[in-house]
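Input (structure):
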């Protein structure tokens, strides 16, 4: 069973995948000042989302994020390592 961080990350990716979202819309919904609940920040750092056009652009799910949604990538609880079928992925 995924931990809370992974579950929230999947929820965010599913929400973004429904339709491209504006940067400000995503930031309003997912940005946190809590260091223990940094879903948006970790998704950016881990390459799970793409932001075309900077702060005025659209946020979409990246190829790596789509792989996570379909289950070919498992994100560890620490979010420091992405694994693919049990093996490390080079970023």
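Output (sequence):
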């Amino acid at each position: 069973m995924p931990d809370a961080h992974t579950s929230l990350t999947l929820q965010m990716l599913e929400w973004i995948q429904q339709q491209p979202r504006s940067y400000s819309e995503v930031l309003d919904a997912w940005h946190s000042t809590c260091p223990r609940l940094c879903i948006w920040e970790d998704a950016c750092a881990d390459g799970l989302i793409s932001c075309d056009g900077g702060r005025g652009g659209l946020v979409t799910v990246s190829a790596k994020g789509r792989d996570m949604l379909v289950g070919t990538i498992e994100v560890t609880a620490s979010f420091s390592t992405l694994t693919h079928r049990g093996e490390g992925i080079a970023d």
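Notes: The beta strands are 21-22, 49-52, 58-61, 73-75, 82-84, 87-88. Confidence is low (pLDDT under 50) at residues 76-91.
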